Amino acid sequence: MKLALIMLAAGNSRRFHSNKLLYRIEGAPMYRRILDKLLKVKKRLEEERSGLAVSITIVTQYEEIGKAGEQEGVKVLYNPHPNEGISSSIKLGIKGNREADACLFTVSDQPWLKEDTIRELAELFLDSGKGMACVSREGKLGNPCIFSGKYFPELLSLTGDTGGRAVLAARREDAAVLKVKDKRELVDLDRPKDFLAEKK
Length: 200
Hints:
Strand content: 25-35%
Domain MobA-like NTP transferase: 6-171
Protein name: Nucleotidyltransferase family protein
GO molecular function, one term: nucleotidyltransferase activity
Pfam family, one: NTP_transf_3
InterPro entries: MobA-like_NTP_Trfase (IPR025877), Nucleotide-diphossugar_trans (IPR029044)
Order of helices and strands: EEEHEHEHEHEEHHEH
Distance between the termini: 43 Å
C-alpha cells in the first residue's frame, strides 16, 4: 500500500496581503508547522503499519517553501498556474503520485492541526475499507481529506477554486469521517485578523 501525503502550499494569500504561509506562528512559518507534522506522521505510520509506504509531496509556487521541502528529502512540485485555484494544485499532486494507492491532502494554513489528527485520519481510512476519509466538526466536512485511486479521475476533472470537498459531497456513503473535538484545529487563517482572533 502506497500513501502519498500531499501538502498544498501554492495559494496567493490575497486576503492576507502578504505570503501568509511564511507568517511566523509560535516561532515557525505557518507552512512549516504542517510540514513538520507530516514528516512525523510518515515516520510513525511506516513504523506501525507493516507494508505501508508513505511519501510526502509539497505543491507550491514559492521557492523558499520548495527549498525547505527539498532539504527534508520530500518531493516538490511547482505550480506555474496558482491563479487557477486549488484544483490546479490538487491535479499536480495526483499527477506527481500516479503510483500511489491513495492521496491525503493537507492545506498549509491550518497551523493548529495536530499530528495525531492527521495520523488518526490515515489509520481510519486504512481500516475502514472506504474510498475516502475526511475530518469533520459539528457536521461540517474539512481538511485534511484522503482519496483512494478510484477517485483520482474525478479529482483531475476539478476546475477553478473547487477542492475535493465536491467529490466527498457527491459520495458521502463511501467516506469515513473523523470527528475533531477541538474546532481550532480546522481554522483556516486567511487574514491577519483571523490570527489575532485565535490568539485571544
